[in-house]
Amino acid sequence: MKPSTRILLASLLLLFSAGTVTAVELKPSDSAIVSKGKSVYRAHCAACHGFTLKGQRNWRKRKADGRLPAPPHDASGHTWHHTGQQLFDLTKFGPKALIGGNYQTDMPGYNDILSDEEIISVLSYIKSTWPKKIRRRHDAMDRKAQKK
Ligand code: HEC
Hints:
The chain has 148 residues and is mainly alpha-helical. Helix content is 53%, strand content 0%.
Protein backbone atom coordinates (compact mmCIF):
# COMPACT_ATOMS: atom_id res chain seq x y z
CA MET A 1 0.00 0.00 0.00
CA LYS A 2 1.34 3.44 -0.93
CA PRO A 3 1.92 5.74 2.06
CA SER A 4 -0.61 8.22 0.65
CA THR A 5 -3.27 5.47 0.54
CA ARG A 6 -2.46 4.52 4.08
CA ILE A 7 -2.86 8.12 5.25
CA LEU A 8 -6.16 8.36 3.39
CA LEU A 9 -7.45 5.20 5.06
CA ALA A 10 -6.29 6.38 8.47
CA SER A 11 -8.07 9.71 8.10
CA LEU A 12 -11.22 8.01 6.83
CA LEU A 13 -11.17 5.80 9.90
CA LEU A 14 -10.81 8.88 12.09
CA LEU A 15 -13.78 10.51 10.40
CA PHE A 16 -15.94 7.40 10.84
CA SER A 17 -14.99 7.03 14.48
CA ALA A 18 -15.94 10.66 15.08
CA GLY A 19 -19.34 9.87 13.61
CA THR A 20 -18.93 12.08 10.56
CA VAL A 21 -18.50 10.64 7.10
CA THR A 22 -17.63 13.81 5.23
CA ALA A 23 -15.56 16.78 6.34
CA VAL A 24 -17.53 19.38 8.26
CA GLU A 25 -18.85 22.23 6.15
CA LEU A 26 -20.13 25.34 7.93
CA LYS A 27 -23.07 27.22 6.34
CA PRO A 28 -22.76 30.87 7.38
CA SER A 29 -24.91 32.01 4.43
CA ASP A 30 -27.85 29.70 5.19
CA SER A 31 -30.21 31.88 7.23
CA ALA A 32 -32.24 28.95 8.63
CA ILE A 33 -29.11 27.20 9.92
CA VAL A 34 -27.65 30.46 11.24
CA SER A 35 -30.80 31.38 13.15
CA LYS A 36 -30.98 27.91 14.69
CA GLY A 37 -27.29 28.25 15.58
CA LYS A 38 -27.93 31.58 17.25
CA SER A 39 -30.42 30.03 19.70
CA VAL A 40 -28.05 27.12 20.37
CA TYR A 41 -25.29 29.68 21.02
CA ARG A 42 -27.40 31.70 23.45
CA ALA A 43 -28.52 28.59 25.35
CA HIS A 44 -25.17 26.75 25.52
CA CYS A 45 -22.20 29.04 24.79
CA ALA A 46 -23.06 32.66 25.65
CA ALA A 47 -22.65 32.15 29.41
CA CYS A 48 -18.88 31.83 28.90
CA HIS A 49 -18.13 33.17 25.42
CA GLY A 50 -20.44 36.16 25.85
CA PHE A 51 -23.77 37.19 24.36
CA THR A 52 -21.94 39.33 21.79
CA LEU A 53 -19.13 36.72 21.28
CA LYS A 54 -16.58 38.92 23.04
CA GLY A 55 -15.34 36.21 25.39
CA GLN A 56 -14.30 36.76 29.00
CA ARG A 57 -12.25 39.69 30.21
CA ASN A 58 -8.43 39.31 29.87
CA TRP A 59 -9.02 36.11 27.92
CA ARG A 60 -5.32 35.69 27.07
CA LYS A 61 -4.30 35.51 30.71
CA ARG A 62 -4.71 32.32 32.76
CA LYS A 63 -6.91 32.69 35.82
CA ALA A 64 -5.73 32.04 39.41
CA ASP A 65 -6.78 28.39 39.02
CA GLY A 66 -4.44 28.04 36.01
CA ARG A 67 -7.27 27.69 33.50
CA LEU A 68 -7.85 29.91 30.50
CA PRO A 69 -10.84 32.26 30.36
CA ALA A 70 -13.24 31.73 27.44
CA PRO A 71 -11.84 33.41 24.31
CA PRO A 72 -14.00 35.58 22.02
CA HIS A 73 -15.58 33.98 18.94
CA ASP A 74 -15.74 37.21 16.97
CA ALA A 75 -12.97 38.16 14.55
CA SER A 76 -10.78 39.49 17.42
CA GLY A 77 -10.19 35.95 18.76
CA HIS A 78 -8.46 32.97 17.18
CA THR A 79 -11.55 30.84 16.55
CA TRP A 80 -11.23 31.59 12.83
CA HIS A 81 -7.63 30.26 12.82
CA HIS A 82 -9.07 26.73 13.16
CA THR A 83 -10.67 24.80 10.30
CA GLY A 84 -14.37 23.92 10.42
CA GLN A 85 -13.44 20.34 11.28
CA GLN A 86 -11.19 21.43 14.17
CA LEU A 87 -13.92 23.71 15.57
CA PHE A 88 -16.40 20.87 15.29
CA ASP A 89 -14.10 18.47 17.16
CA LEU A 90 -13.28 21.09 19.82
CA THR A 91 -17.00 21.61 20.46
CA LYS A 92 -18.07 17.98 20.24
CA PHE A 93 -15.29 16.46 22.35
CA GLY A 94 -14.04 19.50 24.31
CA PRO A 95 -10.47 20.88 24.48
CA LYS A 96 -9.45 18.34 27.12
CA ALA A 97 -10.17 15.36 24.88
CA LEU A 98 -8.12 16.90 22.07
CA ILE A 99 -5.19 18.16 24.14
CA GLY A 100 -5.15 15.16 26.46
CA GLY A 101 -3.09 14.54 29.57
CA ASN A 102 -4.10 16.44 32.66
CA TYR A 103 -5.25 19.47 30.75
CA GLN A 104 -7.71 21.48 32.84
CA THR A 105 -10.37 23.55 31.10
CA ASP A 106 -13.78 25.00 31.86
CA MET A 107 -15.04 24.09 28.40
CA PRO A 108 -17.03 20.84 28.33
CA GLY A 109 -17.48 18.56 25.31
CA TYR A 110 -20.99 18.69 23.83
CA ASN A 111 -21.08 15.11 22.55
CA ASP A 112 -24.00 14.13 24.81
CA ILE A 113 -25.70 17.52 24.78
CA LEU A 114 -25.84 18.70 21.17
CA SER A 115 -26.44 16.79 17.92
CA ASP A 116 -23.90 17.11 15.10
CA GLU A 117 -26.40 19.33 13.25
CA GLU A 118 -26.69 21.63 16.26
CA ILE A 119 -22.90 21.88 16.53
CA ILE A 120 -22.62 22.74 12.82
CA SER A 121 -25.42 25.31 13.19
CA VAL A 122 -23.81 27.05 16.17
CA LEU A 123 -20.42 27.20 14.39
CA SER A 124 -22.16 28.47 11.24
CA TYR A 125 -23.74 31.23 13.35
CA ILE A 126 -20.32 32.14 14.78
CA LYS A 127 -18.81 32.23 11.29
CA SER A 128 -21.71 34.37 10.02
CA THR A 129 -20.62 37.17 12.39
CA TRP A 130 -17.10 37.44 10.93
CA PRO A 131 -16.30 40.12 8.34
CA LYS A 132 -16.44 38.90 4.73
CA LYS A 133 -12.66 39.02 4.39
CA ILE A 134 -12.14 36.67 7.34
CA ARG A 135 -14.88 34.34 6.16
CA ARG A 136 -13.15 34.08 2.79
CA ARG A 137 -9.82 33.33 4.45
CA HIS A 138 -11.53 30.67 6.54
CA ASP A 139 -13.14 29.15 3.40
CA ALA A 140 -9.69 28.96 1.80
CA MET A 141 -8.24 27.25 4.90
CA ASP A 142 -11.04 24.67 4.83
CA ARG A 143 -10.52 23.99 1.12
CA LYS A 144 -6.81 23.50 1.68
CA ALA A 145 -7.38 21.17 4.66
CA GLN A 146 -9.86 19.06 2.70
CA LYS A 147 -7.41 18.52 -0.16
CA LYS A 148 -4.90 16.85 2.16
C1 HEC B 1 -18.24 26.80 30.94
C2 HEC B 1 -17.70 27.77 30.01
C3 HEC B 1 -17.80 27.48 28.52
C4 HEC B 1 -18.92 27.15 27.78
C5 HEC B 1 -20.35 27.02 28.27
C6 HEC B 1 -18.47 27.01 26.40
N1 HEC B 1 -17.12 27.22 26.32
FE1 HEC B 1 -15.99 27.15 24.63
N2 HEC B 1 -14.32 27.57 25.71
C7 HEC B 1 -14.29 27.82 27.06
C8 HEC B 1 -12.92 28.03 27.48
C9 HEC B 1 -12.48 28.36 28.90
C10 HEC B 1 -12.12 27.90 26.32
C11 HEC B 1 -10.60 28.01 26.24
C12 HEC B 1 -10.07 26.64 25.95
C13 HEC B 1 -9.17 26.12 27.00
O1 HEC B 1 -9.57 26.07 28.19
O2 HEC B 1 -8.06 25.73 26.62
C14 HEC B 1 -13.04 27.61 25.23
C15 HEC B 1 -12.65 27.41 23.92
C16 HEC B 1 -13.50 27.16 22.85
C17 HEC B 1 -13.08 26.97 21.48
C18 HEC B 1 -11.65 27.05 20.97
C19 HEC B 1 -11.43 28.47 20.53
C20 HEC B 1 -10.04 28.80 20.09
O3 HEC B 1 -9.85 29.91 19.57
O4 HEC B 1 -9.13 27.98 20.29
C21 HEC B 1 -14.22 26.76 20.75
C22 HEC B 1 -14.32 26.53 19.25
C23 HEC B 1 -15.33 26.82 21.66
N3 HEC B 1 -14.87 27.07 22.93
C24 HEC B 1 -16.64 26.68 21.27
C25 HEC B 1 -17.72 26.66 22.16
C26 HEC B 1 -19.08 26.47 21.75
C27 HEC B 1 -19.56 26.31 20.31
C28 HEC B 1 -19.84 26.45 22.88
C29 HEC B 1 -21.32 26.21 23.01
C30 HEC B 1 -21.84 25.03 22.36
C31 HEC B 1 -18.92 26.66 24.00
N4 HEC B 1 -17.66 26.79 23.53
C32 HEC B 1 -19.30 26.70 25.34
C33 HEC B 1 -15.36 27.85 27.92
C34 HEC B 1 -16.67 27.53 27.58
